[in-house]
Amino acid sequence: MATITGNPQNIMIGSLSGISYTGFAATLFPVALIGVVLTFGLLLALYPQEFLTGAKLAPPVAGPRVNRFLVARSLLATVAVVALFFVGQPPAKAAIIVGALLLLTRRVRSTRVYAEIDWSLLLMFSGLFIIVAGAEHALLTPDIRAAAGGLHLERPWVLSALTAVLSNLVSNVPAVLMLKPFVAALPDATRGWLLMAMASTLAGNFTVLGSIANLIVIEKAARRGVTIGVWAYARVGMPLTVLTLLLGTWWLAR
Fold first, then answer.
1. How many domains does the chain have?
2. Do residues 99 and 91 make contact, with C-beta atoms less than 8 angstroms apart?
3. Percentage of the chain with pLDDT > 70?
């Protein structure tokens, strides 16, 4: 939530709204920081045996192979791309240019880099955007738009609540795509975009299905023998989401 490049819906909001990278971070970074503290505090209270026993995680048996030149090059590229974000360059352009420069090397084959890309995830996002765009054109009739206008979305608490509900019904990325025409028409569109970025991100913590990131983490955990059930997740996610949404909405409504 802290930056435009923090998650997919923030990237879309940044490109649609024209909000600068610095302005976005200056507004939402404090909320994100407090949210992290609340998250750790809640996890510590609910699972003290995981944090207070003094047990340490066992390191991998074999250490990773490190190419110092490529590590230094990658760190330099990371610093460069973050600097470009903060000086106002479009994040997509900065990322693709620096990423392309990283591929210009004889030390590692480009095919090895491409093999690390999660193509199925990219395909899922592409299909998601197509479906939501089709639904936007087919379902957002003048009557629907008029009814949405009657909801007083210019009120921060109303917009935050609607975004949170939609994010849990259709996931946060489709929720942003569905609400973008209404937010763009608000008198204070900048605050509306920031509210939607905050609420759609935090609402994703409510249930397992609240965001694609949750599904990815749970899938990867299952591959390693760790099962995270719906109710085990909700035990943390539900109270955490309510607390952080209240905090974030208050922060932006001041």
1. 1
2. no
3. 91
